[in-house]
Amino acid sequence: MNQAANTSTESPGETTARIPDTRSGAPAARDIDATLSARLRELTTAQLHQSFDQQGSFLYLEDFLPREYTERLIDAVHAVTPAVNRNYLPGHKAGGSVSRHAIDKLAPFIADLYRSPALIGWLEAISGDKLQLSPADDPHAYALYFYTRPGDHIGWHYDTSYYEGRRYTLLLGVIDDSSCRLDYELHTRNDAVPDEPGSVQYPPGALVFFDGDKLRHRITPLGANEMRVSLTFEYVTNPNMRPWQRFISNMKDSIAYFGFGQVFRRKAGKNGSA
Ligand SMILES: [Fe+2]
């Protein structure tokens, strides 16, 4: 049940920063939290919360992750590349995905980053919501999206919440050797405010954070000889999901993202129903 990433290798007496994880040379979870805390203290969180609200639950920060963490994420991309699942949905989406299940095995640093209490606390301050981790069987909890072939893209959509509460998406730039843009429209679900289009080409280390039901967005098609990889984290305000919603969500994940093996085999192992 526990992810491999939660297996601490720290010695009980060691409390100083940067205690190496002996399995991979990666920093331990507590270390990650300390580093992120220091980084987050540099940000003007109250102002950013205000900006998030004014933009209809959307925030973009070009310089967010500590540089060494961006480099670790690039290493993680290489580690998970054999597990990329490619999908093509005509008119909607083409690209590759690596689910949290593969990330747990191949790049546990990402799982530690996802669970960082400092990061979650900061996202709560930005959103004004109490956030929870996505359930263990949600392949989107943390996932890498690969744009590697010309034309890879995802069309206009919302990150719809199939949960009973809200679903927040955090995007982190990892590799961007591309002309792809994240196009978005703010306020589309708020009749009192005019729609406001925007577009960013978020570089490695940048952050995009939004309420999935409020931000209409797309990634424009990859050009020739280009490559782009981004990391997504999903947090929820209520991890419960009604059975029909779960079925729809699983079908969507199987077809559009991770494949039936990744989505349903897990569930068969967990609850005996394939
Ligand atoms: Fe999305």
TrEMBL record:
Ranges of residues in domain Fe2OG dioxygenase:
135-237
Domain of life per record:
Bacteria
- Molecular function terms, GO-annotated: metal ion binding; oxidoreductase activity
Which organism encodes this protein?
Caballeronia humi
User: Which UniProt keywords are listed?
Assistant: Iron, Metal-binding, Oxidoreductase
Name under which the protein is recorded: 2OG-Fe(II) oxygenase
Q: Which Pfam families match?
A: HalD
Recorded hits in PROSITE patterns, A to Z, give: FE2OG_OXY (PS51471)
Give the similarity note. Belongs to the iron/ascorbate-dependent oxidoreductase family.
Q: Where is this region: Disordered?
A: 1-28
Composition bias of kind Polar residues appears in 1-14
